[in-house]
Amino acid sequence: MGTEPAAKGYLPPEDGHEVAWYVYGNPEGLPVLFLHGGPGSGFNTDYLPFFPLERVCLVTFDQRGCGQSRPHGGTAGNNTQALLRDIERLRGLLKVEKWTVTGHSWGATLAVLYAKAFPQHCRSLALASFFGALPEDQIWTFEGIRQFYPAEQAALEALRPKGDSRRLDFWVYEALGAGEAEELAFRLSSLSSASCRMNPNPVRREDITPERIRKWQMLFYYAVNDFFLSPPESLYDGLEKIRKIPFCLVHGQFDMDCPPAQAFRLKKCLPHMDLRLVAGNHSVAEPEMETAFREIIAESLSK
To answer: What was the pLDDT predicted at 144?
Structure first.
């Protein structure tokens, strides 16, 4: 099957947002939801090969302010709780009773939150590269990682005004909206490329489009708001609600963006979760992670 959706549309406007949704594969197949990462990335058709589209009805959407959703980059009325409402509105629109929920990175975080809020609609969970979303996880991602990528981190920090001692995400979010965003987005992209892949692709300056800048603005908008989890530890509260849902998580043993300790923290709360560590980094585009993610998705369809 190709990369054209079998159906697509927009959810009815809410809070000034029109959320773009897509259905791929077999409309009569097993319902599967995929949640993209970011926040800010939007759905990418590169994820389609992970799914047996001949037998599944794959549902996905561009989260508020991302991809084809309107307004692009819009932050008013854009928060984690609104994203969870959008998932439920989409489920209702497509008349899905239960689905297998999949996601990568921030999408995996969102999937856990959704399953906790609506366990009755989740048949199984198949996730990759879980992001823990606690303050120490953010500090690692934005600053602690300098231990492994000192050159990229130094180039980023060189743009920071002298004497600015704020947490890096607060400085970056303000700076992205105050001009000279292209150079900052280039340095952020270079650090991200280096840290998310075992064999990173070099970032070119011509890759820094207005869309790429808005992606970074959205990510840091969520970061400075602690991903709208209050308190941040609330992600781990109430997880007993999903202990009967079959759950498999694949995570890179060498994930520099979200170290495996974050996955183990989740495993401690959910002993039934099948946690599989593989010799990979954060991206699912590399062979070991790609194979493992494809396998757990296939297995989850039989649950």
So the answer is: 87
